[in-house]
Design goal:
250 residues, four-stranded antiparallel β-sheet
Length: 250
C-alpha cells in the first residue's frame, strides 16, 4: 500500500566448510593469499590452499529442490535454505570429488546440470552432467586440455555445451622460475568449443578467436545451424598482478 513502509528480514550465517571449522577452532586464518607476490611464497601458499582451503563464497544455486553454495576451488556445500545450516559437501553420491565451476548451467529440456572442474594438474579440465534428480553423474569426460585455464563459466544451449578456452592460465611450474602463478598470455591462443551434451573431447568443434579474457557469459543460443555466444570480453587479463600500473587499465 502507498505510504506503508516495507520491511525485509534477512538472516546471515557462515558456511560451515571444513576449513571454516578448522580456522574457528584455531582462532586464526589457516591459509595465505596466493594470486600474486613472491614466487616461492605463492608456491607454498598454493600447495597449502590446494590441500585444505574451501571458500564457498561465489554463488548459490538450486538443483532438484536442494540448495548449494559454491566457489571454484572445491565442490559445493549443501545448505538448508530455511535455517542456513550447512549439510555437507555435495559429491553426487561419490561420483565427483573435485571442484565445480561457480556458474554451472542447466539443460532446459531435461533439467540435467552441466558442470566443469579445473585442476592445476592433468586432467586440466573435466566436464560432467548430473541427472535432473541430482543423484547420478550421467557423464564425466576429460576434455583433453594441454594447459590449466581459469574458466569461470560454461555455456549451454538446447543441444550443446559451450566451452571457453582462453589464455589466462595457472601453472605451478612458473613459480619455480620466479614467475606468476596466474598469467595472461597476450600472444596465446583463444578458442570457443561447441560440444554435444554427451560428447567427448573428439566431438568438440573449436573456433579460434582473437586472444581475450572472458569470465562471464551473457547468453548462448542456437540460431539455425549456428551457436551464438554473447559474453563480457576483456582485451587482456582482468586479474591484477604486482607490476600492474594504472596506465594499463586505459
Amino acid at each position: 500500500m502507498e505510504g506503508v513502509p516495507a520491511y525485509v528480514l534477512t538472516k546471515n550465517k557462515y558456511v560451515q566448510t571444513d576449513t571454516f571449522n578448522m580456522e574457528k577452532n584455531l582462532k586464526k586464518p589457516g591459509f595465505l593469499l596466493n594470486i600474486e607476490g613472491d614466487a616461492l611464497v605463492v608456491l607454498m601458499a598454493s600447495i597449502l590452499n590446494l590441500l585444505h582451503k574451501y571458500i564457498s563464497n561465489t554463488n548459490v544455486f538450486e538443483h532438484s529442490k536442494k540448495f548449494y553454495l559454491i566457489a571454484e576451488n572445491h565442490m559445493p556445500q549443501e545448505i538448508n535454505i530455511q535455517t542456513l545450516e550447512t549439510l555437507g559437501n555435495w559429491t553426487v553420491n561419490g561420483a565427483w570429488s573435485q571442484s565445480f565451476t561457480a556458474h554451472l548451467k542447466r539443460i532446459s529440456d531435461t533439467g540435467e546440470l552441466v558442470i566443469i572442474g579445473i585442476n592445476p594438474l592433468k586432467p586440466y579440465l573435466e566436464l560432467g552432467i548430473i541427472s535432473a534428480d541430482g543423484k547420478q553423474m550421467l557423464q564425466k569426460v576429460d576434455v583433453k586440455f594441454n594447459r590449466c585455464i581459469i574458466c569461470h563459466e560454461i555455456g549451454v544451449t538446447k543441444r550443446y555445451n559451450v566451452i571457453l578456452d582462453f589464455p589466462l592460465t595457472i601453472d605451478l611450474s612458473r613459480l619455480i622460475i620466479g614467475e606468476q602463478l596466474i598469467k595472461y598470455d597476450k600472444d596465446g591462443y583463444a578458442r570457443i568449443g561447441i560440444m554435444p551434451h554427451f560428447g567427448d573431447a573428439n566431438s568438440i568443434k573449436w573456433f579460434e578467436i582473437e586472444p581475450c579474457c572472458v569470465f562471464h557469459i551473457i547468453n548462448c543460443f542456437e540460431d539455425n545451424d549456428e551457436v551464438v555466444v554473447r559474453a563480457c570480453r576483456a582485451r587482456r587479463s582482468i586479474i591484477s598482478r604486482p607490476d600492474l600500473i594504472v596506465v594499463e587499465f586505459g
